[in-house]
Specification:
Blueprint (H helix, E strand, L loop, with lengths): L4 H11 L11 E7 L3 E5 L3 H27 L3 H5 L4 E4 L2 E4 H11 L2 H11 L2 H20 L20 H13 L7 H5 L26 E5 L10 E5 L1 E3 L7 E6 L5 E6 L8 E3 L3 E7 L5 E9 L2 E7 L2 E4 L1 E7 L8 E8 L2 E4 L12 E7 L7 H10 L3 H11 L5 E7 L4 E5 L8 H6 L14 E3 L26 E5 L2 E4 L6 E3 L2 E2 L16 H16 L4 H8 L5 H14 L6 H8 L12 H11 L6 E3 L11 E3 L3 H20 L8 H4 L1 E4 L2 E4 L13 E6 L2 E8 L1 E7 L4 E7 L14 H8 L3 E2 L4 H7 L5 E4 L1
Parallel strand pairs: 2-8, 12-21
Antiparallel strand pairs: 1-2, 1-35, 3-4, 5-6, 5-23, 6-32, 7-31, 8-9, 9-10, 10-11, 11-19, 12-13, 12-18, 13-14, 15-16, 16-17, 17-18, 19-20, 20-22, 24-25, 26-27, 28-29, 30-31, 32-33, 33-34
Length: about 750
Amino acid sequence: MRHWALGLAALAASAAGTAATAQTTYEATITRTTYGIPHISADTWQGVGYGVGYAYAQDNICMLAEEFVTVGGERSLYFGPEGKTVLGFSQTDNVTSDLFFRSQFDIAQLRANMVAHQHLETIQVLAGYVAGYNRYLRDTPREDLPEACRDKAWVRPITIDDALRLTEKQMLLASSLALAPGIAGAAPPGETSTAVDFTLPDPDEPRLGSNGWAFGGEATANARGLLIGNPHFPWEGPSRFWQMHVRGPDGYDVMGVGIAGTPLPTLGFNKDVAWTHTVTAARHFTVYALTLSPDDPTVYMVDGEPVKMEAREVTVPMPEGTDPVVRTFYSTRFGRIATVPGTPFQWSNGTAFAIRDANTGNQRALEAWLGIGRAASVAEIETAISETLGIPWVNTIAADREGNALHADITAVPNVTKSLVELCATPFTALVADRVTLLDGTRSECDWKTRETTAPFPGLLPANQQASRTRADYVTNSNDSYWISNASRRYEELAPILGPHSNPLSLRTRSNFKETEAFLAQGKMDHARAKALTFGNKSLAAEMVVEPLIGLCENAQGLDKACAALSGWDRLFENDSKGAYLFVKFWNKIRGRNDLWSVPFDADKPLTTPRTLVTEGEAAEAMLTALGEAAAEIEAEGLALDAVWGEVQTRADGQERIAIHGGPGTLGVLNFQRSRVVEGGLTPVHGSSYIQIVGFDEDGPVADAILSYSQSTNPASPHYSDQTRNYSAKQWHRLPFSDAEIEAAQIGERLTLSE
């Protein structure tokens, strides 16, 4: 265990705006280039964080300030208890959000974890970020802030504690945060609880996704590595990516992106390696079924002995004139108590359920990303993520200049083996196995925290028992489990906590392998061909379904216009594709049926099965009915059945609507965009975000990129939608990395900050 108490005390005091030693200083230089990308240079790690925090605040101050309110559990106070926010993947009220964050985050433990699990340099960079954010607020009069937060009381200086809370939230984002409303609403039978209205995440509808490819020297035109990163992330809110180039001590020189509160790039490249992430199918939390004492629903039984739950009272402040909301939350040795109304997961007089998350208190992620940024090979990347087990919930896909390609599904997952799952099964386990890992909480032997492990952190599955491989041709992932990352070789079955094995693949994954293999069959991969692969906008569902569907509907009454629209569709999701929306509506109605395909799934042929659309009987009738319903809905929306996709799916910039190509991943579209209905069509809520293609020449990295939603959330910024137009036109940006390239692309004056 590493203790950095003296350094932490000085840095924390400075970042909090309190008295600090004269030696605690911050200095950084920020140079902006085309599209507002900041290049931050500093001689110290606290200077690195200082520059990143300041530059991020310049672009996104209102969004970030609101996020600090959220993780501090103060939304009800500033935005009213009836206001709404997104918690996990569901919209919920501010009171529920506040209750969750105030009950979930133990700030004393977060501080202790920071000291125990982070090197001094990562503590310094985090403290610098806080100082940089606060410096921006001091430099910017309140009346000059963007309109969304101008003169708002909730825009305030922050401390290290705020940064730790935000980091903790991001660690749980694709983990147990999905169950946050159930945690916030849990209460013993008969006691007041918060109303909960949400469902367990649907495994067929991933809320976060991504595609990633790493091509080795055998597959590239110049025999060096080449990476394509296509993360599918939110277009709104603090999980938006933001571009940065950071130069720090000891030769650290990394360009890429991070999300709100991240003081270093978490996807990107240096002169020798490039990497991306895709959300893994591994599970990072377990649910325990508890048997309660018949005399007290806050007492649970373990090995036949009663154990009292730990109670914690939480108070949520309200606007003036309204009494605060007070709730008591309960924890067990197996985690926090949670409830999901309408499912077996409810707190009754005899049963309760607890959630334990491997990413709770994960203060190691920044260590992992710092190690990745320093790496000179994919082998060093694998070492960085294996030694820290700090990557929270994403695969790591990387390529290096020597021509190596890495896929590593190595994250912070519970040490839960197949034998433990079988040993600790409950009557409910099989019923929910496709969504959560449910274990028996009546026996101490089922507690993964106490199992023997060779992992550096007790209770976590060791890296050598997770999935990782390096190849010279290619590896790829589109969010299905580890078992296939290359079409020619599969992984052996590993612990079920890492995801299913020999299971049907998503249409997007199948499309990935189909298109990747086809591209490689035609020649070696280079930047131009990588761009075509990334933005191909093909739909595997359309390729499999449209022709036989047209054959069915041509003889059906009342479907002439729908059939004509489908016949005229090019089966793509380009801006000028006509009729795509009709197929989206149709497919969403029919894709869940289990009788669509005459050739069933075959685990020996996972890339080509199931296939061959059924064109008779009940399935055929259902498809015709669905097509008619889809056509009626589109006409009711005031749109033509052959509406141009780029006029249906758009991003608003004031009165202008920017056409957005790409489509739903459930249709097998690699360039994934999930959209919500707005007046006149659709607008993306998450999907292709920071898209990067990175190779290497003799001088360094060669990187083309687009940030689909642009750098700034401030509508008055020139960088609010400039790259969105680039995305719409498929116009890539060659990123400036060297001194000469940065100087040639510089916009505005270079800014030097110090204090």
